Automatic annotation (TrEMBL):
Identification of the protein by name: Glucose dehydrogenase C-terminal domain-containing protein
Key word Nucleotidyltransferase present: no
Organism, as annotated: Candidatus Fischerbacteria bacterium RBG_13_37_8
MF annotations from Gene Ontology: metal ion binding; oxidoreductase activity
Cofactor(s) annotated in UniProt: Zn(2+)
Length: 88
């Protein structure tokens, strides 16, 4: 998103069981006041998740597939249980 106030606003309004994916970074030295306790409480009691991601090339995706395959060998069946509500 590139604009940190929006990132924190998204954290603040994310719904119960929601997942927030941050797929860009912000630059500069901007500071913003946030309701940190409210956000923290909402994430814990609302069972919310926030993850960050970066751009990846084909090699990274191939490594990810390899890692999933290895994990499936060690822990059979875990991958099919990872996604509980697939959306097509």
């Amino acid at each position: 998103m590139g604009y940190s106030p929006l990132a924190f606003e998204a954290m603040n309004v994310l719904g119960k069981n929601g997942v927030l994916i941050l797929s860009s970074v912000t630059g500069g030295g901007r500071t913003v006041e946030v309701p940190a306790d409210k956000i923290n409480l909402g994430f814990v009691l609302g069972n919310k998740v926030m993850v960050g991601t970066v751009n990846a090339n084909r090699e990274y995706f191939e490594n990810g597939i390899k890692s999933f395959s290895q994990a499936e060998l060690h822990y059979p069946g875990w991958l099919s249980r990872l996604l509980t509500h697939p959306i097509n």
